[in-house]
Amino acid sequence: MISAILYQGTDGLTACRITGHSGQAEAGRDIVCAAVSILGCTCVNALESVCAVIPEITENEDGVLAFQLPEMTPEENARAQILMGALKQGLTDLTDAYPHNVTLRIQSLSH
Question: Which stretches does DSSP call E strand in 1-111?
């Protein structure tokens, strides 16, 4: 099962953590794992290339991709929130389509 957590702060989504494997198919043929991976990687890459925002990234061979947005100006955050919203939508769509393989949780950050 893939578990995705998006962290919600006062100014929008601030971080993401994706762990696990979907188990939908064998490694190398798992379209659910591929879809989640491309959503996460595209979001991180677009944050850098489109928004000029460099997130702090953690990834490893155990199926973990995590990133956190840095401190930003309000303008940078507004652009970053568009990409974070697209990530949320994509993960929501996959959760709806593959509920036995992907879960999504939005976790509020307390201040």
Answer: 2-9, 12-19, 56-60, 64-68, 102-108
Taking the C-alpha atoms of residue 72 and residue 76, their distance in angstroms, rounded to an integer, is 6
Helix (H, G, I), strand (E, B) or coil at 38: helix
Per-residue model confidence as pLDDT tens digits over 40-84: 999 999 999 999 999 999 877 677 899 999 999 999 999 999 999
Predicted TM-score (pTM) of the model is 0.92
Give the whole-angstrom CA distance, residue 30 versus residue 23: 7
Neighbours of 27 (CB within 10 A): 7
Domain around 94: 2-108
CATH number of the domain at 17, please: 3.30.70.1490
Q: Residue 69 in 3-state DSSP?
A: coil
